[in-house]
Amino acid sequence: MANPDEQRNGVARDEAEAAVRTLLRWAGEDPSREGLLDTPKRVVDAYGDWFSGYGDDPREYLERTFEEVAGYDEMIVLRDIQFESHCEHHMAPIIGRAHVGYLPDGKVVGISKLARVVEAYARRFQVQEKMTAQIAAVIEDVLKPRGVGVVVEASHECMTTRGVHKRGVSMVTSKMLGGFRDDARTRQEFLRFIGDPRG
Ligand SMILES: [Zn+2]
């Protein structure tokens, strides 16, 4: 059983569970009803999972690099990295995928590390534009490649399940740095790799 005094980021677990009961009451429920008794505990556990990115340092994933790549200096692309995030405006899910490419300058990372970087930023409250820029910035900063491209496509449940109720729409954001920004051929090669109609 979870310790009610267990703290996370300075908040006791029972305080977090009480906040869930408050929202249940606000919505019109009786939190003491049998079916809801364990709900605050489950919600708090789910939050621990959905927002584990705050305890993750994306830089660490990029710091172990391989330099013995036999002079490979062409573009490296990891596409279709699926992620789940939450918008910081409504705390509603953002479900999507990211495509990440870079032009190495001697340093190459294990390909799963790019997915870890996406995950570390996704598992926080986010704005899609900000997340796209953060992924590109940390790759540029740690790997110092000749260029970075990040494209994110996602649907926002705050838009599909409430508000304007538009289903099937997705938002696309991109951040291009270095050669991906300055060289149209590099950018197009990247967009073609990820199947983007702009490529
Ligand atoms: Zn939202």
TrEMBL record:
InterPro entries: GTP-CH-I_C/QueF (IPR043133), GTP-CH-I_N (IPR043134), GTP_CycHdrlase_I (IPR001474), GTP_CycHdrlase_I_CS (IPR018234), GTP_CycHdrlase_I_dom (IPR020602). Keywords: GTP-binding, Hydrolase, Metal-binding, Nucleotide-binding, One-carbon metabolism, Zinc. It catalyses: GTP + H2O = 7,8-dihydroneopterin 3'-triphosphate + formate + H(+). GO terms for molecular function: GTP cyclohydrolase I activity. Pathway: Cofactor biosynthesis; 7,8-dihydroneopterin triphosphate biosynthesis; 7,8-dihydroneopterin triphosphate from GTP: step 1/1. Pfam families: GTP_cyclohydroI (PF01227). This is GTP cyclohydrolase 1. The gene is folE.
